[in-house]
Write a structure and sequence with these properties.
By secondary structure, the chain is α/β, with parallel strands linked by helices. The chain has eleven helices and nine strands.
Length: 283
């Protein structure tokens, strides 16, 4: 089957399954099987380059799983975040595009620190997306991260080994992590679980395939954010920065938590969809 026809078929299949990014997912899936980028794939389509019967069979088998709403990243084993290609799979939270802007808040804060080796911590790092963005884009900083999940930590270690072997990854509970860095941290960031425990996420990829440990946090979704706020007061030095991602309806509640705990200059930040996505504060 010609590539153009195959992509048209896959796009229609994904649209029928309710996948919003149907065409992009079709192109990414085919490009992964053909071991090329989307730009190179476009050239192959224009030139009418054939694919093998085995390649077509593999594509169609993977497409059937994607149509069942298995995340594309689980099928390719890769997720892209800022400048990084990360290893992901079942058991690790797949980083979202909107989190790239949240990471930028921490990167900007870290770059503004007038030290030769500022210290940053990412709590509940998952795949390591945020921590590794800090480590690679502010290469002189000392970056630490912690992840609790046994299922995720293998992917996290692999990503740290590839992108930032000098950054320090620990496994454990964020509520008791990094006692040795108390009062030394310049930037603390977290994209923690923040979905209320009785809420079912809209997208099947999330509620069927994302790990529950990375999604839910008490009745109002804010239990872990309360822990991070208080933990941050112990870890962050005076004048240091805290950045927390949250669901868009939670902005005011998160700001109230931080202000009640004594954080200063508490500010809301919107994502590229103009939805409240993060709150920053100064110790």
């Amino acid at each position: 089957m010609p590539l153009k026809q195959l992509l048209t078929q896959l796009t229609a299949q994904f649209e029928a399954a309710g996948i919003e990014s149907a065409q992009a997912d079709a192109e990414l899936l085919v490009a992964d099987v053909l071991n090329c980028g989307r730009g190179e794939l476009a050239v192959k389509i224009i030139t009418g380059e054939p694919i093998s019967e085995q390649q077509q069979t593999t594509i169609e088998e993977l497409a059937a799983k994607r149509a069942e709403r298995v995340p594309l990243q689980h099928l390719t084993g890769k997720a892209y975040f800022r400048n990084l290609e990360l290893s992901v799979g079942p058991g690790v939270f797949v980083p979202r595009p909107e989190t790239e802007q949240v990471a930028q808040l921490a990167i900007d804060a870290l770059k503004s620190v007038a030290l030769a080796e500022p210290i940053a911590i990412d709590l509940a790092t998952g795949s390591g997306a945020i921590a590794l963005s800090l480590a690679t884009e502010v290469s002189y900083a000392k970056v630490y991260a912690v992840e609790l999940s046994d299922d995720a930590i293998g992917y996290t270690r692999k990503n740290f080994e590839r992108w930032a072997p000098d950054a320090e990854l620990r496994q454990g509970d964020l509520s008791v992590a990094f006692d040795d860095l108390a009062g030394q941290v310049d930037v603390l960031i977290s994209n923690p679980p923040y979905i209320p425990e009785d809420m079912v996420p809209i997208y099947p990829e999330v509620h069927l395939h994302d790990p529950k440990l990375a999604l839910y946090s008490g009745k109002d979704g804010l239990d872990l954010i309360r822990v991070i706020s208080k933990r941050g007061l112990m870890l962050v030095k005076p004048g240091g920065t805290l950045v927390i991602e949250h669901a868009d309806p939670q902005s005011q509640a998160v700001r109230e938590i931080l202000e009640a705990d004594g954080w200063r200059q508490v500010r809301a930040h919107r994502d590229f969809n103009l939805r409240d996505r993060a709150v920053s504060a100064i110790r």
